[in-house]
Design a protein that fits this description.
Layout (H helix, E strand, L loop, with lengths): L1 E9 L6 H12 L12 E7 L5 H15 L5 E8 H7 L1
Antiparallel strand pairs: 1-2, 1-3
Organism: Sanguibacter suaedae
GO molecular function: ATP binding; phosphoribosylformylglycinamidine synthase activity
Keywords: ATP-binding, Cytoplasm, Ligase, Nucleotide-binding, Purine biosynthesis
């Protein structure tokens, strides 16, 4: 069974109150290396069989039509989860 990972982020011009809350909390925890935070969404889509280019194309279409709100969000990543693990 294959798995596709889709990452969706708010467009840069959209306010991100959750990201701002996290950014405010980090220095209080002694983690002051970070200057900003943006919070997005991650989806994992399982498929029968291998992740092929056709499956990735279908996942991108699903991401653009269903998983994201194109008015306020960008689809920033659609990858085979196995490839993502090997890059880490």
């Amino acid at each position: 069974m294959g798995r596709v990972v889709v990452d969706v982020m708010p467009k840069p011009e959209i306010l991100d109150p959750q990201g701002k809350a996290v950014a405010g909390a980090l220095p209080r925890l002694g983690l002051d290396q970070f200057v900003s935070v943006r919070q997005g969404k991650r989806f994992e889509l399982e498929v029968e069989g291998d992740v092929t280019p056709e499956v990735l194309a279908a996942a991108r279409e699903a991401a653009e039509r269903v998983l994201s709100n194109p008015i306020i969000e960008d689809v920033v990543n659609v990858v085979d989860a196995a490839a993502e693990v090997s890059q880490a």
